[in-house]
User: Which sequence fits this backbone?
């Protein structure tokens, strides 16, 4: 008799397994693939590098909340390639010493005073909760030079946690040099070209500094400069062979400024609370203005989701609604629509 191959589409031969078995096997293979991807915690995101820019004390009404985007033309253009969140808020302490660590930690961490041996024993603060840097370095087993925090010369940079499970072995490389935001940007380009870190944080302080100075023109010019630095950073990413097409950039603020007085902040008025989240990159939905309310604590869990590491002590949540690779999440029934919760039966 004639032997037939399975590709003939005919199952008349003794040599071929029945079609329904082949079918079952391919369904099982597909199911295993999906489960493997789920277990990896990352549904094939394109992102391999994340850059986070914190612009200190930029009030939303002078930022992307201004429909004419007077001072932020570059970030406005980037928002059309990516996503913004409205409302995005600092929901607790609208001062830098609490809010910047909250961004790092993905939660409202306590900050603790200690004698910092990395700064000759001088007094400094560290976070109680682990930071994105520590989760990243420990979770993905990365070198310190792959995780760099660039900021101006602040004397002794505030430190990440001393948590026994994380701590100094997993701190980022702190590079604290320069005074103006342009100085810091020059340092940043050097660092990026030299080390190509996959987790990079850039902190720009001058918008807040000049806001406090009381000069509206210095304040707004500082915003324009920060905007152009964000634009230059994205241009750098796009023109660099390591980063292009594989990098997600987030731009946010630690706090805003009083609704009726740009010279100060640190209360719970709308101006102090309302900040910006701009996200752009290969896994970010394009041109999205997301109206799901979010806070600064949601950034770190979202970075973990994209790069594939756990942020287990963070209290914020992943902003799945910004992500393209989120087809599976879209199909999950919203818990609000899933019917009444089961009734507890009294014993
Ligand atoms: Zn301030
Ligand atoms: Zn206020």
Assistant:
């Amino acid at each position: 008799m004639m032997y037939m191959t399975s590709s003939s589409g005919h199952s008349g031969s003794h040599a071929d397994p029945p079609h329904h078995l082949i079918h079952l096997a391919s369904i099982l293979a597909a199911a295993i693939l999906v489960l493997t991807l789920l277990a990896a915690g990352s549904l094939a995101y394109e992102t391999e590098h994340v850059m986070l820019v914190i612009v200190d004390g930029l009030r939303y009404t002078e930022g992307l909340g201004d429909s004419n985007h007077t001072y932020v033309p570059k970030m406005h253009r980037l928002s059309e390639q990516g996503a913004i969140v409205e409302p995005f808020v600092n929901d607790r302490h609208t001062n830098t010493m609490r809010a910047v660590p909250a961004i790092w930690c993905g939660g409202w961490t306590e900050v603790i005073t200690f004698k910092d041996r990395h700064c000759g024993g001088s007094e400094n603060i560290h976070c109680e909760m682990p930071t994105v840097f520590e989760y990243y370095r420990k979770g993905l087993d990365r070198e310190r030079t792959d995780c760099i925090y660039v900021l101006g010369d602040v004397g002794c940079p505030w430190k990440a946690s001393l948590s026994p499970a994380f701590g100094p072995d997993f701190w980022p490389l702190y590079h604290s040099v320069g005074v103006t935001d342009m100085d810091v940007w020059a340092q940043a380009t050097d660092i990026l070209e030299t080390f190509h870190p996959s987790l990079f944080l850039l902190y720009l302080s001058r918008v807040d500094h000049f806001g406090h100075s009381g000069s509206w023109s210095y304040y707004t010019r500082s915003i324009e400069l920060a905007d152009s630095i964000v634009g230059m950073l994205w241009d750098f990413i796009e023109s660099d062979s390591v980063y292009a097409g594989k990098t997600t950039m987030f731009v946010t603020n630690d706090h805003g400024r009083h609704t009726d007085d740009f010279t100060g902040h640190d209360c719970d008025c709308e101006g102090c609370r309302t900040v910006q989240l701009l996200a752009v990159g290969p896994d970010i939905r394009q041109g999205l203005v997301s109206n799901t309310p979010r806070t600064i604590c949601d950034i770190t869990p979202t970075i973990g989701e994209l790069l594939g590491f756990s942020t287990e002590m963070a209290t914020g949540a992943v902003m799945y609604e910004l992500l393209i690779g989120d087809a599976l999440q879209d199909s999950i029934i919203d818990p609000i629509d899933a019917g009444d919760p089961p009734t507890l039966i009294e014993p």
Q: What stands out?
A: The chain has ten helices and 14 strands.
